[in-house]
């Protein structure tokens, strides 16, 4: 909200080093920069030297000063978005102290003033990322950047802010990172850290290593042709081009000496010799290994599955091609998965018709429950999506080499110019079968709380792993979601450096359909009841998923920031009982009272 003119608060912005006019290039200025022979023992730590100037504002004309409020205008536990004329900041008061940071989440730009403040951090109301209010550092994900931190100064009971205009406009900060310093005695086929997979887990692992001062060689390899990109947008924003959804620009990888080998597939890993063997025969020795290969989409088993215009969406090119072919045409989507439903929503206004085929009788039944699933299904039907439930595809028929019809086992024949398959996925771990790395019966890599496998020096992260979830009494679970992959990568990196860090994050995910989002926190697998507050017909609700009287997960639509608030409760180690749901909703949503977040226990 806006500041009352009669009172004053002043904030001073600390300009992060990334705001220098031009970042230094990597010593060799190339994308695959520094290659050296690993000796297996040396560990180098070398952060860039940044002298501290007495005046951090190099250009006085870039500085803005504004008074924003009196010290008594904010109570403890309150946040206020303040306007400095050329940009905004988030002013926070906690335990009697004032803090000021960027006001927008660097992930997708959510207003943090609508988020959740608890015990020294603010949680994004949209997707659950968490930031330290004292440093601005990101502490939970999704997203890669931290918040800019602004110096707060109090004089004569007024709070003052002094800010760089440029910093106020960027609203994000990349943490300081090391560079590779081993410029000599190198070997093309040797690296200290090898990361197989260039998704969120792999990239966060590499960035965390650099942030922690690790300055040896890091190599990421991926079957994809692109640098790491925002994969959830493949189904949520299907016409996005690769450069639009890149997580980092090419220059970033050059600057911080993170090598990315694209279109490179690992065929086998020899853990005894510490060698990864690529499909083309190339071999690379490593000291530490992270396996973050994600999953592989399941395909149809019926006749015609290899036909043209039948897609599993794995790349930006796949998504772009589907949008182009589907415009004003007939689309059939097989599987009411997150991917299938998001694709259906995205194409509904573009295609002539959208039909969705699903084996269950209600979408999302196993994940969100039948009542929420029916409400979502009704929303889709109101947007011209036709459902064919409790049936499967028996055949895909072609005409002149292209898809023409989808035949269902029920006997129904659907006109189809494009077919998108979203029937689930399996972990991409087939290349590890003879490696000695522990793989469970479903193909998932088994890791401990530090993301370590049973092989010393070998870590795994992301969609391809099962790990102990603290929230569910350390039950081994698979959580194939974007936020969790980020955290896996960070924990793996810290433990490569022997920090002894254990994962304890609360799973958080979201789905977007027809301009509306369902947010979800916790792990509801095996829930036995759903307690719903709000109005499902109006698509304004919060659903609490319980097991044996304990709330294990929560989902909401148009009820922000309830999911982020419950996530903070669960992160604090507290238990919410079924009988407490009414009180939780009343205190957190209707009154805004957050005092119930403090402490542990029930």
Automatic annotation (TrEMBL):
A Pfam family this chain is assigned to: Reductase_C
Q: Where in the cell is it found?
A: Mitochondrion
**Gene Ontology cellular-component terms listed:** mitochondrion
Keyword presence, Iron-sulfur:
yes
PROSITE patterns from the UniProt entry: RIESKE
- Keywords for this entry? 2Fe-2S, Apoptosis, Electron transport, FAD, Flavoprotein, Iron, Iron-sulfur, Metal-binding, Mitochondrion, Oxidoreductase, Transport
Molecular function terms, GO-annotated: 2 iron, 2 sulfur cluster binding; metal ion binding; oxidoreductase activity, acting on NAD(P)H
Q: What is this protein called?
A: Apoptosis-inducing factor 3
């Amino acid at each position: 909200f806006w500041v009352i003119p009669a009172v004053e608060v002043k904030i001073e912005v600390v300009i992060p080093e990334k705001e220098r006019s031009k970042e230094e290039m990597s010593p060799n200025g190339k994308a695959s920069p520094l290659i050296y022979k690993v000796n297996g023992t040396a560990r180098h730590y070398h952060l860039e030297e940044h002298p501290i100037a007495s005046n951090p504002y190099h250009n006085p004309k870039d500085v803005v000063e504004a008074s924003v409020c009196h010290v008594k205008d904010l109570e403890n536990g309150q946040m206020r978005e303040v306007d400095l004329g050329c940009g905004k900041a988030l002013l926070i008061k906690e335990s009697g102290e004032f803090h000021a940071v960027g006001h927008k989440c660097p992930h997708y730009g959510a207003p943090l003033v609508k988020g959740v403040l608890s015990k020294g951090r603010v949680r994004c109301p949209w997707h659950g990322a968490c930031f330290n209010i004292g440093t601005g550092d990101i502490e939970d994900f999704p997203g890669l950047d931290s918040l800019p931190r602004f110096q707060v100064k109090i004089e004569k009971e007024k709070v003052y802010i002094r800010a760089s205009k440029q910093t106020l406009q960027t609203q994000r900060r990349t943490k300081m990172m090391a560079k590779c310093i081993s410029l000599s005695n190198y070997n093309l086929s040797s690296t200290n850290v090898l990361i197989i997979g260039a998704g969120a887990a792999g990239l966060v692992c590499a960035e965390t290593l650099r942030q922690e001062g690790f300055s040896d060689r890091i190599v990421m390899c991926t079957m994809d042709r692109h640098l790491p990109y925002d994969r959830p947008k493949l189904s949520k924003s299907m016409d996005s081009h690769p450069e639009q959804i890149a997580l980092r620009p090419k220059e970033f990888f050059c600057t911080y000496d993170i090598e990315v080998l694209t279109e490179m597939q690992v065929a086998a890993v020899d853990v005894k010799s510490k060698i990864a063997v690529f499909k083309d025969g190339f071999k690379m020795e490593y000291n530490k290994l992270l396996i973050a290969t994600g999953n592989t989409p399941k395909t149809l088993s019926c006749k015609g599955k290899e036909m043209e215009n039948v897609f599993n969406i794995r790349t930006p090119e796949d998504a772009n091609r589907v949008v182009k072919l589907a415009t004003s045409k007939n689309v059939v989507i097989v599987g009411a998965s997150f991917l299938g439903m998001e694709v259906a929503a995205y194409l509904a206004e573009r295609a002539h018709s959208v039909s969705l085929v699903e084996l269950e009788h209600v979408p999302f039944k196993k994940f969100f429950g039948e009542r929420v699933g029916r409400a979502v299904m009704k929303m889709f039907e109101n947007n011209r999506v036709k459902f064919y439930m409790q049936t499967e595809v028996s055949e895909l028929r072609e005409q002149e080499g292209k898809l023409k019809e989808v035949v269902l086992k029920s006997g129904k024949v659907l006109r189809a110019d494009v077919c998108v398959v979203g029937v689930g996925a399996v972990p991409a771990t087939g290349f590890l079968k003879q490696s000695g790395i522990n793989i469970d019966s479903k193909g998932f890599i088994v890791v401990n709380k530090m993301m370590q496998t049973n092989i010393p020096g070998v870590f795994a992260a992301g969609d391809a792993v099962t790990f102990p979830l603290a929230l569910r009494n350390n039950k081994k679970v698979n959580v194939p979601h974007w936020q969790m992959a980020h955290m896996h990568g960070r924990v793996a990196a810290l433990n490569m450096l022997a920090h002894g860090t254990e994962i304890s994050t609360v799973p958080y995910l979201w789905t977007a359909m027809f301009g509306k989002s369902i947010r979800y926190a916790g792990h509801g697998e095996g829930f036995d009841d759903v307690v719903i507050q709000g109005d499902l017909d109006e698509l304004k609700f919060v659903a609490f998923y319980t097991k044996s009287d304990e709330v294990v997960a929560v989902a909401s639509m148009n009820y922000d920031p309830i999911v982020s608030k419950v996530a903070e409760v669960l992160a604090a180690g507290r238990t919410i009982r079924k009988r407490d749901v009414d009180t939780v909703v009343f205190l957190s949503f209707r009154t805004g009272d957050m005092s119930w977040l403090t402490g542990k226990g029930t």
